[in-house]
Amino acid sequence: MDWLSPLSGLVGAIAGAAASYLGTHQAQARALKDARQARVEAKQDAAVALLSDGFAQLHRHIRSVPESSQPNLNMEGLRELAAAEAAWDRQLHDLLGPVRIAVETIRDKELRVRLQEIVSQLAQWEYELEYAYRWSRRAWVLGGLVDHAVECVGAWQREEALPEPNWAYRRAKESVEAREEEWRLTLEAQEEDRREQAQREDSADS
What pTM does this model have? Predict the structure, then answer.
């Protein structure tokens, strides 16, 4: 039965090779996973750095927002205010562009959605947030939105739950929803007017 010895050796060699291959494969898989995770973390770190810089620039810009509550403006004053608002708005959107891109790279869905809402509110600052300015200056509301964005990113980095919406975020959200409801009712009224007009025309033709 000497032939069993070389056979046993062959089986042992095959088993050893298989174990070595499996170990190498697992090590490579772990290395790839670690490298992928490192790339993800690097991208998230880059996004947070971009957001940090963007929020700081937004805070500086918001301090110069034209206030609409100036009393006794004549036509010339109103034109100057409109021009100042238009110029400020252009600069705002230039600042929001990189922030919006960074927000879209955030992997945490809850944080991403909250930041998307804040960016949208800031972008609609002039008309959609009109009701939020009834008892507050524009700079306070807009600055409060950026403050909430900073708080959310900080909580996420500390691996804590997102903070409750602050007063600025709540007022902005309520204002946007009120404006959307007004727009919906206006469209419904216009559609009803078109239907009534069509019915009158049909009656006149008959």
Answer: 0.75
> Which residues, 6+ apart, have CB-to-CB distance to 132 below 8 Å?
141, 168, 171, 172, 174, 175
- d(CA 10, CA 15) in angstroms, rounded, equals 9
Given a cut of 70, whether residue 8 has pLDDT beyond it is no
Residue type at 60 in one-letter notation: R
